[in-house]
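User: Please predict structures.

Assistant: First:
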Amino acid sequence: MPSDSSSGNTGSPSASRLQNAWLSRGPLACLLWPLSLIYAALFAVRGWLYRLGWLRTERVRVPVIVVGNVIAGGAGKTPVVMAVVRHLQARGFRVGVVSRGYGRRTDDCREVLGDSDPQDVGDEPALIHHATRAPVFVARQRIDAARALLERHPATQVIVSDDGLQHLALARDIEVCVFDDRGIGNGWRLPAGPLREAWPRRCDLLLHSGAQPAFAGGYTATRALAHDALGSDGKRVPLAALAGQPVTALAAIARPEAFFDMLRARGLTLADTIALPDHFDFEDWQRPAGTAHTLICTEKDAIKLWRKAPDALAVPLEFAPSADFFAALDAKLSSLDGYQAA
């Protein structure tokens, strides 16, 4: 039986080393600590400018829910965004999503459409639109995306912002802060630690997206791979049918090994693993020689990878926040001034 190996791994070793350094206050973190003081000072000055009114926070006419995180390196916010959108849609709300569209090659404000190139709108906005069919707009400034969304879709009742806890130009009504199993890491600010801003900080709802919450408090969620992989043509392939045969697993996410471990836990034999940088564009990517096995990837990667490898199979992540999280979200939403029930 083939053994797991690593091939075609073009992920950044320096990025991996830095993320490992963020887990403790070791030599590398200590070396970077003076820079974190400068980062924290600049962040504080920016906050003061908003509080003094020199930088403006603008409000739109519908409630805004921001789903974000205070740590760098990915904490699972996109599955949370999709779960929140689906929950509100199930309640009858007309929901829109705004995002910066991180990693895209364009710089304008635009709507994400079914045939949009992920390179132009960002892989995560493309995935959110594909998975929820909600209107999604991207812009450098999320306030611009929100205005454009409401102009194009005036019946929208709630806007969910994909990331943006630190984007203070867009006023928000509810903040959802997402953590994974790493928690706050070593507790230091960037670049000596993973924190974008100091923790604890005020937020309305705290959600742990991982299997083992790193600290107490907040709500939890369950996450597991779907039972079926999806082909580019919509065909479903049960993961159980792939067990016992060698496959090549690919992930261009913040923590590729997490995806690989979940595949192994479902009984798949990973003959090769390909870890690529988060938001990898696949523009010039070619399948490494000698990896002729079935290619398995994440749902986010498939949005771009299918253009290069239409035979690849995507395995969606089934992410389900606890019922009490949604109850708390509904309660906060219904308490807002000007709230209109669906």
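Second:
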Amino acid sequence: MHPMLTIGVRAARAAGQIIMRGFSELDRVQVDTKGLNDFVSNIDKEAEAAIVQQIRKSYPDHSIVGEEGGESKGSNSDYLWIVDPLDGTNNFVNGVPHFAVSIALQVKGKTEVAIVYDPVREELFSAVRGQGAKLNDFRIRANNPADLSQSLVATGFPFKARQHTETYMKLFAETFASCIDIRRAGSAALDLSYVAAGRVDAFFEIGLKPWDIAAGDLIVREAGGTVTELSGGHNYLISGNIIAGGPKATIQLVKKFRPHLSESLKK
């Protein structure tokens, strides 16, 4: 196993233990508001601290950027860990058992290692660039249905970017009219991992952050899937506007979405 994958998995499992202890005692979880429709719990913070501690023990000179703690720069700027300690906080605090730890490692700007860990189901999705994607110890491949009419599509509502609601509803309607059905589960990291595992055929969302996407992006691509912006570009880690899926489904969604995109979403 790639040594940095080993450390990432160890960190993800340490965070998962904290999350599941908190999930068993939700009445003790403290929740604060970070912004409009944006919440953080003490468990998010404790899980991120556990991840940082595990990484720092082995790689004290690496940089880390976390959803809760921001960027902690190390002396070696070539290595950057991108961490979401609890993707799906709204699910977690409401007792919905669907959330994940997301950890990615970029080396000189390229994502090399990715882990998405679902502590409820004890499912560990992982990828190393050029070596394929796995669910626990088994190889996974994204589906590639010939047409959207054969596709189950996942999505996430832009609850932190409500200025895009009108455009999003057009994209939703266009997709719903073309596919088998749509799922909205509440964790982008798991949505991307489910694309990689063939559980859903495509996924799209507006207004995500790098820590939501970075790990799932590599896992999808190493599973044979395609990841683009809504417009078909490749700047999704910055824009946060993403389509992922089998190559054919992704191309079809880009074509269907382009006429409906606002100017800000075309960039």
